[in-house]
Amino acid sequence: MTGREKYNAPMKIALVQTRTPATQAAALAHVLPLVREAAAGGARLIVTPEGTNILQKHRETLLPQLTSLSDDPVVNGLREAASDLGVWIDIGSALVLREDGKVANRQVLIDPHGAIAATYDKLHMFDVDLPTGETARESETYEPGDRAVVADVDGTRLGLTICYDLRFPALHRALAMAGATVLTIPAAFTRPTGEAHWEVLMRARAIETGSYVLAAAQGGFHEDGRGTWGRSLVVEPWGQVIAKLDHDEPGVLLADLDPAAPSKARAAIPVLTNARAFTGP
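-> structure tokens emitted (281 positions)
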């Protein structure tokens, strides 16, 4: 296959849906068989969810377990797997220590040689006071990133975002304007917000950017007591869901991405080029 044929051929991708445990050793044992299953199904790019390396909502238990990106056992285990299997692996996010000692929620793209090709730190922190009296303060644990990231996978441009980023259309538009035709939005969505907003927002981001959306999810009830929505899905640039796990159990979802679909959608609905600057209100 020539380089031109390679870039014009459909790309088989896989989303891995996990129920990540509360330690890295258990997390690696959980995700590796699913990654191998995805590769055996022919996937060239495998995307895992947010928090692939550990899920633990209690800071006092989580923080002592975290390491730097280079020392994280799940990241290193998946780097070895990418090299052994000859595939791209996009770790939806790993919770790791930054160089300054703060914590990052970091997406990690690994190439088929096991090298880290790109990283992205989650930009938007979910900080909220609910009418029920419940509060959430992601910013108390994680340091937000400060840059958007587009990366190349075999000639396909990926725009990297994580979970709560989904609710900020301007970020995804900026990624599309920078050349991304596939948006990765790995997540650990709560069950109430997942039921209400998960699919409709994923479809909206695909429609308004004319991009594929790859949404690998955490699912089910975890060791730390949280419940996540699951329902990993792939949306094509016209907004149709072309593959979906209609449950919250661990599993693998395969799909083929047509490299011509984004340009067709963008030509039919040219919102990226028709947008105009305005003043006010």
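Helices lie at 3-8, 24-40, 59-62, 73-85, 169-177, 191-209, 261-268, 271-274.
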